[in-house]
Amino acid sequence: MSAERFQLDIVTPEGVVVSTEVDEVVVPGPEGEFGVLQGHAPFLVLLDVGEVRYPTDQGVERLAVAHGFAEVTPESVTILAERCERPDEIDAERARAALARAEVRLVGDTTEIDHARAEAAYRRAQNRIRMAAEE
After folding, report:
1. Which residues form the domain of 78?
2. What pLDDT, on the 0 to 100 scale, is given for residue 109?
């Protein structure tokens, strides 16, 4: 590993999605996106719905992620995500259908639904649609 690079690992319940060396990574946290460079102070943070980005020799790699944790150390970033998809893996029609279902739940009779779960589904669908459109 070079002096400026560090290890990035992204893992979901299905397995390892990314295991590579990077110069920097941007991660969605509960207070907004945060960037990490080699040597960063250690911390553990909740992962929010959003986009993980890091530069590669071919351009910027972008991944849609949802919920989990990110552990930052001076030598590595490990992301444990509930979900992680590359933009070309996203089924935009399915995401639009999920968004429509979530919208109906959020504006309908909210006494029968789990509002937090419906809101999370809405945010995930929005993120997936945005990522697929930018692909």
Report:
1. 6-85
2. 62
| Gap between the Cα atoms of 76 and 6, Å rounded | 5
- Number of compact structural domains in the chain: 2
Q: Give the DSSP letter of residue 23.
A: S
**What CATH number does the domain containing 19 carry?**
2.60.15.10
Coil, strand or helix: which one is 104?
Answer: helix
Predicted model pTM: 0.80
Asked whether 96 and 33 are in contact (CB, 8 A), the reply is: no
User: Are 77 and 126 part of one and the same domain?
Assistant: no
With beta carbons less than 8 A apart as the criterion, state whether 112 and 43 touch. no
Instruction: Provide the angle, in degrees to the nearest 10, between the axes of the packed helices 92-107 and 115-134.
Output: 150
Q: Which of 126, 50, 45 is nearest to 84 (CA)?
A: 50
